[in-house]
Amino acid sequence: MRMKTWVAVLLLALALSGCREVRVKSYATGETIVPGGNQITIVRSRQDLERLGVRALPVRFNHEFGVILIMGPHAESGWKQVIEDIRANEHRTRIVAFEHAPPDGGQPVPEYHTYTLWIVPNSVYRRGSVIDVVTPDGALVASTLLK
After folding, report:
1. Where are the extended beta strands (E) located within the chain?
2. C-alpha dist (Å) from residue 134 to 10, 100, 128, 145
3. What sections of the chain are H helices per DSSP?
4. What is the separation of C-alpha 23 from the centre of its chain, rounded to a whole number of angstroms?
5. Which pLDDT score, from 0 to 100, does residue 126 have?
6. Does position 76 have pLDDT exceeding 50, yes or no?
7. pTM, whole model, 2 decimals?
8. What b/e readout covers 5-23, taking b as 16+ CB neighbours within 10 angstroms?
9. Which residues contact 15 (CB under 8 A, 6 or more apart)?
10. Do the beta carbons of residue 4 and residue 83 sit within 8 Å?
11. Sign of the C-alpha dihedral computed for residues 117, 107, 37 and 141 taken in this order
């Protein structure tokens, strides 16, 4: 599964850039407590990360931006995000993702969300591009427009 995730991260960088030479420098996964449901969010500052409750890898915002997929909420421990596929063209990135339930059913915990964070160079940011996250069945999970 880790290899699939790493390939997905590289494909996201290619999708956002339209250039095969640009690579995602790093990524992180984890849990956070934020209000709301599923969302795909672009983070351009440390305050954006803090607002989302993400205390992950250091992002150098003068050179990079973050793309965060937040899914949930969940009341049982053990939920994990699975990034199945990322496809893109110049105007749209389509991420196929879902969450995997804990095999043992999990334990009751305070409500939380799972997240995946990709750190991408600013040079690949394309204003007007759409990022859609869908389930393997094609149902829309979240969407955002790069402004």
Report:
1. 26-32, 39-43, 64-76, 80-88, 92-100, 108-121, 130-134, 140-145
2. 18, 15, 19, 15
3. 2-17, 46-51
4. 16
5. 87
6. yes
7. 0.81
8. beebbbbbbbbbbeeeebe
9. 86, 87, 88, 89, 93
10. yes
11. positive
Domain range spanning residue 84?
Answer: 2-145
pLDDT, tens digit (0-9, with 9 covering 90-100), for 16-45: 555 444 455 557 899 999 999 999 999 999
Residue 56, token pair as written in the block: 């992950």
Q: Nearest to residue 73, comparing CAs of 29, 115, 36?
A: 36
Q: Which of 116, 94, 138, 143 is nearest to 5 (CA)?
A: 116
Which contiguous run of DSSP H or E holds residue 124?
none
Q: Structurally, how many domains does the chain consist of?
A: 1
Tell me the two tokens of residue 123: 């040079």
Q: Please give the single-letter amino acid code of residue 41.
A: T
**CA pair distance 95, 90, nearest whole angstrom:** 14
Confidence of residue 125 (pLDDT cuts 50, 70, 90): confident
